[in-house]
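In the laboratory, one determines a bound structure by crystallizing the protein with its ligand and collecting diffraction data. In a computational setting the workflow is compressed into a single prediction: the sequence and the ligand go in, and a structural description comes out. We illustrate the idea with 6-O-phosphono-beta-D-glucopyranose.
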Amino acid sequence: MASSNPFSDPLRFERQVRPCALVIFGANGDLTKRKLVPSLYRLAFERRLPTGFAIVGNSRTEMSDEEFREKMRASVRQFLEESPFDEDVWRDFSRGLHYVSGDLRDPGCYQRLADKLGEIERAQLTGGNVLFYLSTQPSHYEAVVEGLGGAGLQRSQAGGWRRLVVEKPFGHDLDSSRLLDHAVHKVFPEEDVYRIDHYLGKETVQNLLAFRFGNGIFEPLWNRRYVNSVQITAAESIGVEGRGAYYEEAGALRDMIQNHMLQILATVAMEPPALFEAAAVRDERAKLLRSIHVMSHDEVAAHAVKGQYGPANVGGRALPGFRQEEGVNPQSQTETYAAATFFIDNWRWAGVPFHVRSGKRLAKRVTDIAIQFNAAPHRVFSGLPGGAGMSELAPNLLILRVQPEEGISLRFLSKQPGSGMKLRPVSMDFNYGSSFGMRSPTAYETLLVDALTGDATLYSRQDMVEASWQAVMPVLEVWGNTKFDFPNYASGTWGPAASDEMLARRGQAWRVP
Ligand code: BG6
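The predicted complex, in structure-token form:
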């Protein structure tokens, strides 16, 4: 049944979740313990979940409700960020935790789930409202959707809503994403499908919308006449952290660029929506993703670089190379670093390069967006004695810091004190933490509340998913047919030399964030 979508709070001030149940498939997995349950506990701690809120975990492992609660308690204690663990809150919250074990290909599993949901509906007055969360291995997605459909769980007899959250990856390439979509739509209508891209839930990514469309001064500059280039970096210092087998199949382009990075790119470059409302915002994002120039195979070598980390000794610690990680082929050709330059074929951005890079085991953990403006058209100071020198060339940069610190800085030139007219870059800084003095919700907190209240603004839609697959397919195809000499960067560095060379060919360089 279509969701009634009753969100009366489009700017998401104090959105209230109504009594409902959340079913997590893959409840024994990493995401559940690191992100989902700690985020839900945190929402309970902030009294953002109703009394009649229930969670039903599912996985193959046999466990009682009590054992599941104990397991989740340990995860919350371990992974809860920046807040105290409160025994009273936990006691109330954990009463709503239930567990149903079962094989996802066994119809009996969905029957047991239906019975459990029936009990919960009666005891906790959830009105039949259920959010199903797919957090299993992606190869099980279709089976779960089919199983839910087989048991009629996509519809509530009591007239409540039913929604489905799908974790990334949405397919392995364009064709498989279409097949998955087809399977999902056989059971759930599009308006009940929430494809999660947690980067869209990050405060600073959301703030990009506020920054661009809530202010009058930046938007007039936000185009090819004033912007020289854009760099989007998502660097991680960690390696594959026990996810070697998954990562060996995925690689950085599929894991980060096809989804998170292109969604950031779309948020930076999209046109202003007429309203801050799901359909309007998603239409603009989708339009932008469709305008990304799809490279020809011949363009790939000049516009994309692939890297893989080797073993290294970082700060006295011997770190394995990717090929030595568990679950990874010792001759692996999978990339742990990917960089690409995208162009957008529209009036606003024609000719402006968007350089995007992401990698594991890089020099530090940082995600940011740097908008580089054109240099002043005439160098007024360069002829003066003791004059500006090289620094006059330093371009104006607007840096939107997504993590770990969240904020915005604007770099411009200023006169250095003293005689002469020596210019030096300085920066004007806004820092989220110190300006607001309050903690930002994590992306999963934001997105879970959104799905539970029926707001899909920050979720991906199938046309967006397809457009971003389309943008990376030529790169995947060419890389799939090329043999790389790996490893080609050492852990703790900024990636392969080929990536610097790619930008150097355009007379540009990656920033050191
Ligand atoms: C996930 C990727 O989607 O995002 C991981 O699968 C990556 O490989 C993670 O580490 C990064 O997320 P965050 O929020 O820590 O930047």
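The first strand starts at residue 20 and ends at 25. Keep in mind that any predicted model is a hypothesis to be tested, not a measurement.
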